[in-house]
Amino acid sequence: MRPVFVQFRCAPGQTYKVADAVYDREVVSELYSTSGEYDLLAKVYIPEDEDVGRFLAEKLFDIEGISRTLTTMTFKAF
Q1: FRET partner for 23 with CA separation of 20 to 30 A, picked from 5, 31, 59, 76?
Q2: Would you say 36 and 10 are in contact if contact means Cβ atoms under 8 Å apart?
Q3: Domain for residue 78, yes or no?
Q4: What is the DSSP code (8-state) at residue 63?
């Protein structure tokens, strides 16, 4: 499993609705409300045999109320 972090910017007044929808998809291991440019931060474990972009697009990015996302890939440091 490969961990990636996804930040979500939500349409005004939609953050709680988006957070509920993200949890309902059962694909994130952690979800946080954040300050700054983005409203939510999720940690997602992607199966090794899955394409990251396709996995995220099919599992999360079609949620109504998301206006922008930022995905951060992780790599083994040592």
Answers
A1: 76
A2: no
A3: no
A4: -
